[in-house]
Amino acid sequence: MKEFETMRDVQLQAARVGTILVVDDSAMVRRQVCAALAAAGYATVEAIDGIDAGAKVSADTQLIVCDVNMPNMSGLEFLEQLVSQPGTARIPVVMLTTEGQPELMQRAKALGARGWLLKPFKPEVLLAFAAKLVVQRDRSR
Amino acid sequence: VTIQQRLMALIVASTLVIAGLLTWQQASSRLTAIEAHLRDKARTYSELAGNQVLSAVAFSDRETAREVLQGLGADRDVTSVTLLGANDVELYAFGSPSARHAGHVVASQRRVISETPVVSLEGPKGVLVVELSTDAIEVARSRVIEIALIAGGIALAFSTILAWLIARGIARRLRAIGTVVTAVAAGDLEQPPIDIRRRDEIGVLAAAFNAMVDQLKQLLARVRDLARKEQDRLEALVAERTDALEARTRQMRLVFDHVDQGLLVVDLDGSIAPDHSGVVEGWLGEMPASHQIVDVVQRCSPARAAWFALAWSSLRDDLLPLELAVAQLPSRFEVGGRDLVWSYKPFELANGSTRILVVISDVTAERERARQEQRERETVSILGRALRDHTGFVESCAEIARLVTTIESGERASDEFARDVHTLKGVSALLDLVSIAQACHDLENARAEHDEAKCEDHIAAIVSRWRELAALAEPFLARSRDRIDVVEHDIVELETSIARGASSRELVQLVASWRAERAIERLSRIAELARSMATRVGKGPIEVAIECAQDLRFPPRLAPLWSALAHAVRNAIDHGIEPVEQRARSGKPRLPTLTLRAGVRGDDVVVEVADDGRGIDWDLVAAAARARGLACATRAELEAALFSDGVSTTVLVSELSGRGVGLSALRATVHSLGARASISSAHGLGTTLRIAWPREANTAFITAKAS
What we know:
The complex is a heterodimer of chains A (about 140) and B (about 700).
Chain A: H1 2-15, E1 19-23, H2 27-39, E2 43-47, H3 50-56, E3 61-67, H4 75-84, E4 93-97, H5 102-111, E5 115-118, H6 123-140
Parallel strand pairs in A: 1-2, 1-3, 3-4, 4-5
Helix pairs in contact in A: 3-4, 4-5
Chain B: H1 3-52, H2 54-59, H3 62-70, E1 78-84, E2 90-95, E3 100-101, E4 104-105, E5 111-119, E6 125-133, H4 135-185, H5 201-258, E7 261-267, E8 272-276, H6 279-284, H7 293-300, H8 302-313, H9 322-325, E9 332-335, E10 338-348, E11 354-362, H10 364-388, H11 390-409, H12 415-430, H13 434-448, H14 452-480, H15 488-499, H16 504-513, E12 517-518, H17 519-536, E13 543-548, E14 553-554, H18 559-576, H19 580-585, E15 593-601, E16 604-611, H20 618-627, H21 635-642, H22 662-672, E17 676-682, E18 686-694
Parallel strand pairs in B: 13-15
Antiparallel strand pairs in B: 1-2, 1-6, 3-4, 5-6, 7-8, 7-11, 9-10, 10-11, 12-14, 15-16, 16-18, 17-18
Helix pairs in contact in B: 1-4, 4-5, 7-8, 10-11, 10-14, 11-12, 11-14, 12-13, 12-18, 12-22, 13-14, 17-18, 18-22, 20-21
């Protein structure tokens, strides 16, 4: 728990830089992901599908955690749209996926997804992704 | 030009020089002697003849001169004799005299000339000239040259032979040494010793060579000996080491063959190391050397191979620490009826390359046993509950039955469904019905994954398990319908009331209250549950204090309150109470205390669950609320956020709680009973959850003493 406290302090600082966009049609999953990220001090924005996510991507978005299967616009379609635009192409994306979707994940990887989070996800894996990708992005700025 | 040739040339040349010098010296002394002899002879002849021809000169007597001088002609050396009288009249001439000039004989190269004046007493003066031939000298000289040539030839021949012999002797011995040295230099020490019978310089050299070769032979022998010994030693050492290694390998192999876990070492490319434990092949089939881990998965569990390959390839992405990256690999496989758990342990080799140890455990029996034990435990638990806490048991069963029914037929996507599942999870966990609690937990996960097939599986599991348990509980439930528990205290109270002459209305009220449950009993049972649960989740042992009036009773309609309270207790234990080490760090007593209070406070009846745990981090609540778009400015707003759907301050989703559903489910229950819930907490010090409702509603169930 002590590590958690320290990490939280670090992340609270990191959170001031930008936000993490969490895209999933399931409120439960969004809650879990956001709770884990919020507990580590990241500011989060939620979106319910690809269309909603497209509207909520901003200059502050540091990382996108995105489900694969969603109504209206799937995670892959959203990813396609994201990488096709120069302003958003460099935002790292971590897909939320299940073991049953290797082909979709393969396509997501080909489209430029940086990693994936296997559901049910382990918070430490999510936070490791966030730590790695958010820091990387800060450096690249 | 060889040494032999040089030596020969030197010896021949020096012999010739010596011979020449000797010959020259001999010849010159001989010739000088002959010449001196000739001069002596000429002078002697002149003196002798001169005296005898005095008269002849005096008288120019040719006859006398002829008589005297005729004899000289007998000497073959004498080439001419001339006697000149006065006025150079020739008185006698013999041979061929040399020419004269100005009264003197012109000296000739080839003659020894003696010119003697002859002075007679009478006056006339004459000259006697005797010339001797130097032919004798010439003869002698040519003789000397002849001898010198012969001697030179002999000397040359002799010296050549001698020189050849000497030079050959030296050269041969030197060559012999040279041959041996060349052979030795070429590495052949097995040469016959050089002949050293002659102790001259070459002999010394040869002896030195012989000694050197001997030394070399000895040295070589010693070195060979040493080398052989060293080689023997090394061979022995290697053999020893090999034996030790083989023994270790055999031991390892033995361990590998008998260990009941599958052990595989795989590199990041997916290649499997040739050595693996024996059970691996039994469980997963043949493991040819060319096999990759992905091939193994393909064969054992084709449906998961694609994902496995993808996840394995991501290990090299370097995006996550390897320890976390392996957490996304499939860990459970069912192969040939076996339940296998794969765990992945990355490690680094000495050369810096990374390998992953795959530890495969067969948990079939363990799982089966655990399932069996769990079922037995559940049976015991449900029977024990039926006997100990009949009222609670009946209520819990009724609640579970209601929840199972609503879940079975409920709209899967609704929030109510989520709350029902969560409540069922809590109630069944409290009754130690772990199988149902686990199925609820799995159902929540499947629901989060939108895996509808899995959802239905879990719902079916919940329903069928509950039917089994309900069948078990049925006899006890049947018994309960016509019975009320009365304890000694109730009888004593009734007797006391009768004795003091209580009114019949009072007595009816008292007896009627027996249908209501005594709060203290319920709190005691919850305390008992709390203790066992604390131990189960690794927080125990804990101290549970109960503060409650003996005769506080709650009506049956408030039964759902107890499950809400159970929720609060679970929250307190799971989230509130810190692990022992952390308590020690913050200076708290090791033993956590949970306080259960029930009582009347002013116009309200209040039930509280208080813990001395870590309290609520209101900053985190604020962050979570902000993330959910809720108001978070004041404490009241934060409290409201805490009770709303989806705000949870824990990142851990455990079997017990944590999805942000708990407090909202509690609030829903409490509201439905006309009560209200509130929470107060100081970060780091503890949390108190309070459920309160107006006293009026329950007056009938509070005895006079309590009020």
